[in-house]
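Human:
If only I could read backbone structure tokens as easily as an amino acid sequence. I am handing you a single protein, as its sequence and its fold in token form. I hope you can help me see how the letters and the tokens relate. Thank you; the sequence and its tokens follow:
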Amino acid sequence: MRHLLTKILIVFLTIIGIVILVGEIINVHIYFPLSVSENNKIPYHRMQSVRLATIISFVYFGIRYLVWNTVKMYPIQFLNIILKSLAVSSLFVYYTFQMELREYWFVLFFFVVAIILHLSSRPEIKKIFKHK
């Protein structure tokens, strides 16, 4: 059941990503969850969240490479790290900018998705290593 939920979430996020990319190609600025920017600008707090999530992920993978450079990661683990970074950075930025409570659902959504991905990826990894 959790693998089906994981696949549904990944398909959902992939479709949203494709819609956002197509929107950029036709000069329509869309940000999650399919909100069209009225003044051709993505809200500053959202951009800061993504910026910090990228930096957190880079630091994590840099340290991981330096410490465990031979340990391989699976794509679902990569997505999990990115989403956890996005949730943590969004929480920090939203709190710092004193955003309205309705903006925090974005943080909650990505925390929930990251937890589901985390739980889904763990048994798969154990199964793969047991077969070798």
